[in-house]
């Protein structure tokens, strides 16, 4: 079975916990999130979205079996976070993703 594609975006912010809560709450209307400490995980568009609160950073991770699902997970997480953080000019820049090498596991 092939390894999933993975992508990550580290978004610097002074309020990572607030943005994580807002993102998970908003997307929770459509998908069910599981939260364990600072990490929340959900199945999104055939892949997995992960939101992790760090010290001065909100990390988004996406995992998916194919580039189409990966692009959808990245779009959902990134687009919503950028909209919530528009006032503070949050920008989501993904490393990895569609067309990226499959993770080494």
Describe this structure in words.
It is a single chain. With about 100 residues, the protein is α+β, with helices and mostly antiparallel strands. α1 crosses α2. The C terminus is likely disordered.
What's the pLDDT, averaged over the residues?
90
H and E string: EHEEEEHE
Low-pLDDT runs: 99-105
Number of helical runs? 2
Question: Termini, distance in Å?
Answer: 12 Å
Q: What is the structural class?
A: alpha+beta
Rg result: 13 Å
Strand content: 25-35%
Arrangement of strands in the largest sheet: 2-3-4-5-1-6
Helix content estimate:
25-40%
Largest sheet: 6 strands, antiparallel
Number of strands: 6
Task: Please give the structural blueprint.
Layout (H helix, E strand, L loop, with lengths): L4 E8 L3 H12 L5 E4 L2 E6 L2 E7 L3 E8 L2 H18 L10 E2 L9
Keywords:
6-stranded antiparallel beta sheet, alpha+beta
Task: Give a brief description.
Helices cover 29% and strands 33% of the residues. It is α+β, with helices and mostly antiparallel strands.
